[in-house]
Amino acid sequence: MSNPTDGLAETIAELEAYLGTEGVLSRPQDMGRYRRDWSGDYEGTPAAVIRPRHVSEVSEAIKICNRREAEIVPQGGHTGLVGGATADRANQIVLSLEKMDRIRSLDPLGMSMVVEAGCVLQTAKDYAERSGCFFPLSLGAQGSCQIGGNISTNAGGVNVLRYGMMRSLVLGLEAVFPDGRIYSDLRALRKNNTGLDLKQLFIGTEGTLGIVTAATLKLYSKPRWVETAWVSADNIADIMQLFGYLRGEAGDFLSAFELMTPPCLDLALELDSGVSLVRNEVKHFAAHALVEFSSSGGPDLKPWITELIANAFEQGLAKAGIVAQSASHSKMFWRIRELMVEAQQKRGLHLRTDVSVPISSISPFIAKVTQAVEKTLPGSLVVAYGHVGDGNIHVNVLPPEDFNGFQGKLGALTATINEVVDGFDGSISAEHGIGITKREEFAKRIGETHLDMMKMIKRSIDPKNVLSPGRIFRIGPNSARGPQSVEMDPRPE
Amino acid sequence: MSNPTDGLAETIAELEAYLGTEGVLSRPQDMGRYRRDWSGDYEGTPAAVIRPRHVSEVSEAIKICNRREAEIVPQGGHTGLVGGATADRANQIVLSLEKMDRIRSLDPLGMSMVVEAGCVLQTAKDYAERSGCFFPLSLGAQGSCQIGGNISTNAGGVNVLRYGMMRSLVLGLEAVFPDGRIYSDLRALRKNNTGLDLKQLFIGTEGTLGIVTAATLKLYSKPRWVETAWVSADNIADIMQLFGYLRGEAGDFLSAFELMTPPCLDLALELDSGVSLVRNEVKHFAAHALVEFSSSGGPDLKPWITELIANAFEQGLAKAGIVAQSASHSKMFWRIRELMVEAQQKRGLHLRTDVSVPISSISPFIAKVTQAVEKTLPGSLVVAYGHVGDGNIHVNVLPPEDFNGFQGKLGALTATINEVVDGFDGSISAEHGIGITKREEFAKRIGETHLDMMKMIKRSIDPKNVLSPGRIFRIGPNSARGPQSVEMDPRPE
Fold it and tell me: Is residue B482 over pLDDT 60?
């Protein structure tokens, strides 16, 4: 299966003739970093990697692949966590957007910028900041993930509470349909009501309906006042009350409210003893929140925030806490948030989930899901944290010490967690998408009408199923093509 | 053509048998208010009006119509301005959502509410406010327009600058597809990434792909501090500089910036002499803005805003102006904004447009479009005003005095204005939609790929073209149905 078929060799030869040898990698030794994602959970050697430099090259390359019915998997910064962007069959061609990484323009009065799909998120954010503006999408992977990936997965992150998901930050889009036709509307219009908003076909659809090549992004005023605080409470119910209080008083100033449970702090400490400063202050408490207030103008927030937090203490809503007195203080708070993710990664095989529930159900949800996981696999460690304002909780599970059978438990643990999510009317995929990992669990939950519609639109737009095949859902045979080959992905879903 | 065909009579009989006589109106004397929209520009007697009370009734009624290939036109609060919601052929059945007007639930911690399509916007806003929350969609027609119409036209209004269009306020949706199947996902989830976001098929598509029956709406914290100011400058370029300055300093506090030109004030005065107070202060200036700052928490804005406006004067960015000192003062400013719209209406036949251009092009755009209109029809009065932060300008045209041939000029004037819009990379339909009015002008501008995709999706979802036929675009004959009858709408497009 690792040798491409003859037809595939011809496709690659045709792509090489068009894109040049720089634009097509097909020797195994050149493909190393295109084979796996950041999590290490997904690995697959593609038949080739193509690296177009312009939307017209993307279009032409897709036309070649479509004509020859070669499968294409678009790839961004390798930070997806659901196996969407790595080859899962040896006949797939990876389309990397890395050579399309320019920032085409920025309009400071109009507050918008045009960025190519391969541009790293951090690069785009830095560029906006140098122009006196602010691009608000913020997430752990921002130093590696790319704008195209952010759009095709509708990325979330820590500032959704204030600015919304990636979907609400896209004003215009340039993309290529599976038949190679180009959709281009990069006009920086805040209002443009002309029927079906075609952009939406590409946002969050994980490359199944087209490949994003550039976007016009909405910019904001730069935050002028940013105040950060760490607050701890006796339990999650109290922390949620605190959230309600702070949001009521601070309104839109509340730009992040990151819930953490005690294992999160322990994990962060494994990687950096410097954070023990915070930990010693708050270690007796069962629920923590990293709270950020910000405003892009108006009067200085500091005195007001200090009073607000003091009031929260007086009312008993917070039991311990620190208002950051300096930038380095605030950096340390955020560093805990990052370290705890890295530490889980360093621990090796573990279960990551990304679910959402109505905000008012967060506290009972975490209690119930923790109990259910501990029942399914006694001795396992539940690491729960998340973006409270979005109802988005990551319920991760680390294996019991010296336990070797964890791989075999992943399926049962996922099923356990998802069942609890269902009980709270939640979603099993808040911000990471479906990819391949969650396909089966997703299929169980999506309504028949919903799935039919999605498949019908997929079939209409990509009748040969060449683009991101098998992502989100498997699609049966259709008239243009025979039944698909058997999936080779052996991982539990 | 005013007599329904026999097939239609049978359809209506079947609908009556299912919905009861209360649910189906078919006598001409009962159909008065369903015949025309608020503008009076569109009038058409439908074959019948159906008024379902539940999503299951909507579903069943649509199944009946679909099976019998009867055309359905969904209707909300009659405030659309592009002829989308009135019957334009005598064989069409109007589906009014007015009996589905309940507010199903509101979650103050989760900040969301579930509202039925027929609920009047103002009613939803009031309910949210009584629960300590805020639903931000605000527009002139809010006392009549309905939530379903707001969604299917992706309504905008005066607070888009801060809160976005209706699209960004919809968390969940319940809707009925043209074949009667129900799509229902009213979960109040802030994050839910599961492939194609099916909601988007119904938002802004003017009923062509389905009928919205209920929605879960995103609520915000109630504005706590609201400050309003009227500022005037020598010309529009200066007013735009002022906009840049205020947005830079106030950031997201700037919640509205409504540009008005001198004819706007004159028109308002025609209906209410009380507003002369403002007018006398500022009448020598060529550009005005109604500016609103608001925040939903944090420190009192008043002292800071007063200083900010004083600075704008010092820098020469504003030449005259008043910071509202009381609620009644601020109401008067907004009253001018409303009166000017009503006064145009009272003047009788006039041309309304609703275009958008990049924010940085607003000043040269207004200059150029005014010149072009005056050349096309000397003596006509250009009334330009709009939502600056969204680049959304209404360029309306009133006929020269005692001029009777205005109807015959509408087409040429529209073409003139739209050409100027094209030159600035703008949109000919910012917030009102396409409907029937703008269909031809839209068809000229939309790219071939874009139109093909829209038609392909329409054909896949509504192969018999029963839902809102002819809205947004005409669609040719397809296999399931013969060529459509000739359009009867005689108005210029």
Answer: no
